[in-house]
Write a structure and sequence with these properties.
The structure is a homodimer of 299-residue chains. Helix content of chain A is 39%, strand content 24%. The first copy, chain A, is an alpha/beta fold. The first copy, chain A, has a single domain, classed as UDP-N-acetylmuramoyl-L-alanine:D-glutamate ligase. In chain A, the strands form two sheets. Chain A has a nine-stranded mixed β-sheet with strand order 5-4-1-8-9-10-11-12-13, with helices on both faces. In chain A, strands 3-2-6-7 form a four-stranded mixed β-sheet. The model of chain A has no long low-confidence stretch (mean pLDDT 96).
Chain lengths: 299, 299
């Protein structure tokens, strides 16, 4: 079934203890697509500036991503400069230049409006709402968010939450949004918000999935070599949504299997640099890691 | 098979946001026994003062705990006063009075020396070594430790680690001991220390088990009502060791199943107050939660 992603396309500068990569391709929609394209073709909506290199456009096309929704605006592409230290759990943002992404006004091509599976990557809830208003008859709508919007745009975020099926957010964001310290409680509170499911990403601690019937959880794949965590959450979402769109399913058991694919994919993401190396991973390798993940938590 | 625990017996004062319990029965060996006795009879070695209430001794006897190794010394019983706030992840120690436990010189009754399964609860590594020197031909020796000993008695702790089969410690202690931020790496470094297995307790994030062949992990049981986390780690260990002693097994798959029992038991521990309420939980209830835990992470 068709899969739509709306999110950022960025030129990232990423510093890790091991290396510094300058002005490389990044952004939530890119990492999402690099993971999802292994499962099903992706429709992408985003915006770049006139400086966006042709090679990056070619990279998206090489993954069979439909870039009919990729707008080019006068000005520069969104730039993010992040730095990872120590445990590399969280990036310290050195600088952000929203550039054309600051005025992002997503317009979905007519052919994208009836997408079956829709993923709204982290972004201003007002912008996410604009997308939801254009989408018609989707099977599953999923949105990601972040602390910034929970703190500064709660009303708009609540409107998004009231309009989607599944919210995807990280551990501390789940705590912040629900006011619950304990993840098991935060998971249940997400359901009180009227969602069909809540996906709480916990980094090296894996994932908690809240559905109407149960709170489930999976450990992370024990990847020992974390080179660069950039894009881990977006590629998790990409594999999760790609799996669901490929299978055409949205039940709780399918969400768990999809999350396992997300965990497997994210473990590849953190082990290397940039979206290109995920895009190159054969689906068989991901499936092998899904099987390993199953073995890891079987008793 | 026979199961021996050596650890503290305390009179605890515990403050949580909901209530304050003063001078109640606590201590690592007590929580361990309350969990383990459901699986197999427990032999206990510890020390109390002359003030130790008869009712607590009766409680231990009521669980079929062999208290032939319970020494009574002139002076007062070990007292710990802890306070939990906010996320209740970690106790803030208000006060500690080691009293007779400060001079704890464990002497194992002759009948305890050939115990098959031995658990050294958290304590000074020098004291743990004294126990190991008295134990002969054990099938499995497991020790717990804490940040205090990692920081102040590393040499003695290394000697303990070199003499046991399995080390049990919490997430941050594993990081401190191995110098690795990432739990997946810390787990492997534990194996480099010559252990047969490492058990990393991660609270609401579950447990990581390192064995020679693999790094496995289980999520926590999503208990939403955390009343008092005191004794969670010790009752985890009690159920784990109780299960292994009952089954008479020490292979990796059995360790995983044992850890699942530990997680299930610990979820009961945090849901109530004191060791008595764990002691009263029928084994069928624990087994039911083990099955639920399996369902929670099945995909």
């Amino acid at each position: 079934m068709s899969l739509l992603v709306v999110g950022s396309i960025a030129l990232d500068t990423v510093e890790t203890p091991a290396r510094k990569a300058e002005t490389v391709l990044g952004g939530s929609a890119v990492y999402f697509s690099a993971a999802a394209h292994r499962y099903t073709p992706v429709r992408l909506v985003g915006v770049v500036g006139e400086d966006f290199p042709e090679e990056h456009r070619e990279f998206l096309k090489s993954m069979d991503v439909d870039i009919a929704g990729l707008a080019v605006q006068p000005g520069e592409t969104f730039r993010w400069h992040g730095k990872y230290q120590g445990a590399m759990n969280e990036a310290e943002t050195v600088s952000v230049d929203l550039n054309v992404f600051g005025e992002f006004d997503p317009v979905l091509p007519q052919s994208f409006r009836e997408s079956d599976f829709v993923f709204l990557a982290n972004g201003a809830p007002q912008v996410q709402m604009k997308v939801l208003e254009q989408v018609k008859g989707a099977t599953l709508t999923v949105a990601d968010t972040m602390n910034l919007w929970i703190e500064t745009a709660r009303e708009a975020l609540d409107q998004v939450i009231g309009s989607i099926d599944v919210l995807c957010l990280n551990e501390n964001e789940a705590r912040m949004l629900t006011g619950e310290h304990l993840i098991a409680r935060a998971a249940r509170r997400l359901m009180d918000l009227g969602l069909k499911a809540g996906v709480i990403k916990k980094g090296e601690h894996g994932m908690t999935l809240a559905t109407a019937g149960a709170t489930c959880a999976l450990p992370a794949f024990p990847e020992e070599n974390v080179a660069d965590p950039t894009g881990a959450g977006d590629s998790f979402a990409g594999a999760m949504m790609g799996y669901l769109a490929r299978e055409g399913k949205t039940d709780a058991a399918s969400l768990m299997r999809a999350a396992a694919h997300g965990i497997a994919m994210a473990s590849f993401t953190v082990g290397g640099f940039g979206p290109q190396h995920i895009a190159d991973i054969p689906i068989e390798k991901v499936e092998e890691r899904v099987h390993q993940l199953r073995a890891i938590c079987t008793f």
